[in-house]
Amino acid sequence: MSTYLRGDSSSSNQSMGGATHVTLCRCGQEAVLKTSWTETNPSRRFLGCINYGTPAYCHFLEWIDLVVHHRSRHVIIRLLRKPDRLEKRRRR
């Protein structure tokens, strides 16, 4: 991983007074900001390789957010499942 400052501030990466801090993955591409929706890391943001899902994927991942507390994780997962439960009730 490497970082550099870019002159424009259009990136979703961290801004530093007019310049933008950009993180590069192992491929040399600019890492993109994503959000995990897995049960172990719900709503946790991370920087990942732009080539995810392709043969060029380098497996780069850098967490932005801290680990979600187990109680918060439980609440988030229940909230994410709630629309499914409501839809099943509606269909009955």
Automatic annotation (TrEMBL):
- Metal-binding as UniProt keyword: yes
Q: Per its UniProt record, what InterPro entries does this chain match?
A: Znf_GRF (IPR010666)
**What keywords were assigned to this record?**
Metal-binding, Zinc, Zinc-finger
Pfam families registered for this protein in UniProt: Zn_ribbon_GRF (PF06839)
Which segments constitute the GRF-type domain?
Answer: 25-67
Regions that span the bilayer: none
Q: Name one GO molecular function term.
A: zinc ion binding
- The superkingdom of the source organism is Eukaryota
Name of the molecule in the record: GRF-type domain-containing protein
Q: Which organism is it from?
A: Jatropha curcas (Barbados nut)
